Amino acid sequence: MSISVNQITKTFGEQTVLDNVSFSVSTGEIVGLLGPNGAGKSTLMKIITGYIKQSAGSIEINSESTSTPHMNYRRLVGYLPENNPVYHDMFVKEYLHWVANVYGLKSGAKRVQTLIEQTGIGREQYKKIGSLSKGYKQRVGLAQALMNDPAVLILDEPTTGLDPNQLAEIRNLIAEVGTSKTIILSTHIMQEVEAICDRVVILHHGHVIADGPTEQVRAMASNHAQTVRCEFAEAITPNDLRGIPHVERVEHGPDGTLLLYASGAEDIRPHIFDHAKKHDLTLLTLLQESQRLEDIFQDLTR
Q: Across residues 257-266, what is the average pLDDT?
């Protein structure tokens, strides 16, 4: 087990930011840590990385407690904080060599060159960090987070402010790195979570309100097990589709189609087809839809 978060509570004065938070992350998992602003995501990440201390509870990284005085667990962790606090007056390669020296790496120059190639900043390595685009600054931040080849990587809003091309580049880089590391990724961009995360943990008011693979969270949050979109050649109303097995509700869709909401795990599309055949209706569209993670997030945290 790479990360074990056990009943973590954090208070600031009379305010409780995290309340009895528990979850674990296995080696090789990429977990999306989601929640509205103020849910406690950044606070939890700072506790995991040792920047601040919890008020109660415990955290283990590769079975090593983060509460031990020697803090050796930090060698296992790479951290990219929100807003990427790098030194803008330093040159890219100079900064990375400085980070390598801070870690005391014996083969620092070789490690720096490897990360320059891995993060795709070769053309920018002799520029000042302050002159780089937001996307390349994030790449430099990822390079410093990976400098000690950590087993665990904590990324707090790594794609904030990036344009679509930069988003795709950073997404691919995180997915590539994630094949050999355990990653906790905090973001407000649901497409990023669906694209690269194996699992989501959703925080709200300091509590874990959902934890599991994306499809499992969809099932937890949805009021219906499945939604099917239908379009017919004939002009029909929702009443014309009453009586189909397992269908609980039929509504008009925004594009003129009909939406059928059903309970249970059984696929209702064969039943819809049989209904259409029985009533001489011509099906043009029969599409089973999955609920968007963004909608689920809003449902759970509203």
A: 82
- H or E, element range at 183: strand 182-186
Backbone angles phi and psi of 207, in degrees to 5 = -115, 150
Of the candidate CATH numbers 3.30.360.10, 1.10.10.60, 3.40.50.300, 3.90.1150.10, the domain formed by 3-212 belongs to 3.40.50.300
Which of the two residues, 150 and 264, has the higher pLDDT score? 150
> What is the token pair recorded at 217?
């969270």
Q: What pLDDT score does 291 carry?
A: 65
pTM for the structure as a whole: 0.77
The top-level CATH class assigned to 223-301 is: alpha beta
Distance CA 284, CA 115 (A): 52
Residue carrying structure tokens 């406690």: 40
Distance (Å, rounded) from C-alpha 252 to C-alpha 250? Answer: 7
Task: Determine the distance from the C-alpha atom of residue 205 to the mean position of all C-alpha atoms in its chain, rounded to a whole number.
Answer: 18
